[in-house]
Write a structure and sequence with these properties.
about 160 residues; 5 helices; elongated
Length: about 160
């Protein structure tokens, strides 16, 4: 209200809490973050929110070159393209900071669908293991509570 902005929606929260929710995926023109993690990790948290043509702009330290080099692959895989880095000095200090401007260039909707499918399929081996081991576990629990105590479980 103070800024007189209209037609915007600001969401404040932890990126990792919202990223797995389809309602927030690839919906926003702009995502910003503060320097809470390395650029690769921030990109993994934040680029999924940005729609194609939008931007992710993390606020980082001024000494960002090594981090940029290390994050290029992650940014590309996540559908981003590093456009530029705006370096500046904080007023009345000698501290350098940067805004890294990353444009989202690729729609990853299909990738998210495939990832969610495989994530769901990973439950199948776990369910099979639980089923196959349930008799063993049931027997051990029955033995334990039948009075043989903790000594029988050590076997």
């Amino acid at each position: 209200e103070t800024l007189g902005l209209t037609g915007i929606r600001a969401i404040h929260g932890r990126a990792e809490d919202y990223a797995r929710q389809a309602d927030y995926r690839e919906r926003f023109d702009l995502c910003v973050s503060r320097a809470v993690a390395n650029l690769s990790t921030l990109s993994e948290y934040c680029l999924p929110y940005v729609k194609v043509g939008g931007h992710f702009i993390p606020y980082k330290s001024g000494k960002i070159q090594d981090e940029l080099t290390g994050a290029k692959t992650a940014i590309k895989i996540l559908g981003g393209n590093l456009e530029k880095t705006e370096k500046f000095q904080l007023a009345d200090t000698d501290m350098e900071r940067s805004f890294v401007v990353i444009r989202k260039t690729m729609d990853l909707g299909l990738m998210w669908g495939i990832a969610e499918t495989f994530n769901g399929l990973m439950a199948i081996p776990n369910l099979i293991a639980v089923f196959l081991l349930s008799g063993v576990v049931f027997g051990l629990v029955k033995e334990y509570f039948a009075g043989e105590g903790a000594e029988s479980v050590k076997r």
